[in-house]
Design goal:
Layout (H helix, E strand, L loop, with lengths): L7 H10 L5 E4 L19 E2 L1 H4 L8 E4 L5 E6 L10 H17 L9 E3 L5 E3 L4 H7 L3 E2 L11 E6 L10 H18 L6 E3 L11 H5 L1 H12 L18 H12 L12 H13 L10 H7 L10 H12 L12 H13 L10 H9 L1
Parallel strand pairs: 1-3, 2-6, 4-8, 4-9, 5-8
Antiparallel strand pairs: 3-7, 5-6
Helix pairs in contact: 5-7, 8-11
The structure holds zinc ion.
């Protein structure tokens, strides 16, 4: 298997955080699973854990209340078998789970695995349902320092000197395109394990294919590999954008005042948030911090993040009360705003709508 890893500190952290029950949702933000609007890439067929005969996880799976921001490609470093059968794929998934148990992990480290025959299998439990929801992320154990922000895909085989079979590569493109679509991840945010950890993974040949993979995924999702443009917000700034940052930080549990003035308190909270997400800790709200900070909202949601949307809409002339309750009035205003920006008027505040709210 590849040198998937989670650090000892991460493991001890898990032991203290994981409580009773089967679901741990970090963040405490009440939202609902729903399909992502404007879906253009259909979901590839993915075999769930129960179908391939996974054992139960050793501890509850952690579901984080934020989307992943990147994809990391691995190889399993197993034999380049010519057994392309579904049963062989199931056996490999069971083997990997057992190897990962043997390393003291709670479940398979990766979120998904693709066999050389082109079968896509769920790895860590709950990864499939969470991907279908498009809002949350299952904490993995596949790349040290990235497990809270990256979806990990294991590709069966060793690709140091061999090319992956066409069937596998085809499914890798399809899976990456679907993941990018579900989470609003740019095709430019597909990496190899070696980009982050000292490892050969995913092999020289597969690693060399990553630029092609990004291009092929970009063609599927039509993003041209571009990332959303976000405004820079930092200490000394003031106004509605700063309020948005402050509301979103409050939604993340930081006790700061929403006064629209980016001072030392806001800066400290931004740094702490960045640290918690494995981002560069500079106290400046730029593209990566924005992408991690925003929360998809819809009718029925409540809280500080809703206030951020209402306050932004008020500042644009919509007659709304900033009460933190996303009801029909807020929904109408969101739809009207979306129409005015040429966005799909679905009333859901996802990444594109957040981006338009803080950019214009
Ligand atoms: Zn790896």
């Amino acid at each position: 298997m590849c040198h998937s890893c989670d650090s000892p500190s991460r493991r001890s952290f898990l032991k203290t955080v994981l409580g009773i029950g089967t679901i741990v949702l970090i963040g405490g933000i009440d939202r609902h699973f729903a399909p992502v609007a404007n879906a253009t890439v259909s979901a590839p067929s993915i075999v769930g854990c129960s179908t391939w005969g996974a054992q139960s996880p050793k501890q509850p799976i952690t579901v984080l209340s934020s989307r992943p921001t990147k994809i990391i490609v691995h190889h399993t470093d197993t034999a380049n078998t010519t057994d392309y059968s579904l049963s062989q794929a199931y056996q490999l998934a069971r083997n990997i789970q057992q190897w990962h148990f043997n390393r003291g992990w709670i479940d398979s480290g990766q979120h998904f695995m693709i066999s050389r025959g082109g079968y896509v299998l769920e790895g860590r439990h709950r990864s499939l349902e969470v991907l279908q929801g498009g809002l949350y992320h299952v904490r993995g154990a596949h790349c040290d320092g990235q497990n809270d922000v990256a979806v990990g895909i294991e590709n069966e085989g060793n690709y140091m000197s061999s090319q992956p079979p066409a069937a596998l590569y085809d499914r890798l493109v399809a899976l990456c395109a679907y993941i990018c679509q579900q989470y609003g991840i740019s095709s430019s945010q597909i990496y190899g394990h070696r980009d982050f950890n000292a490892t050969d993974c995913p092999g020289d040949q597969l690693y060399a294919l990553l630029p092609q993979l990004r291009q092929d995924v970009a063609a599927r999702i039509g993003d041209g590999g571009s990332t959303r443009t976000w405004p820079i917000v930092q200490r000394g700034h003031s106004g509605e954008r700063v309020k948005t940052v402050q509301y979103l930080l409050r939604a993340r549990g930081y006790s700061i005042t929403v006064d629209g003035i980016f001072g030392s308190g806001t800066e400290s909270a931004v740094k702490s948030f960045q640290s918690s997400k494995g981002l560069t800790v500079d106290g400046i709200v730029g593209p990566q911090t924005w992408e991690a900070l925003i929360i998809t909202l819809r009718n029925g949601n409540t809280g500080e993040a809703v206030k951020a949307v209402q306050s932004q809409l008020r500042a644009r002339g919509y007659n709304l009360t900033v009460d933190g309750i996303f009801g029909s009035g807020t929904e109408s205003a969101v739809k009207s705003f979306q129409s005015s920006k040429g966005l799909t008027a679905d009333g859901i505040v996802g990444p594109q709508t957040w981006n338009a709210l803080v950019n214009s």
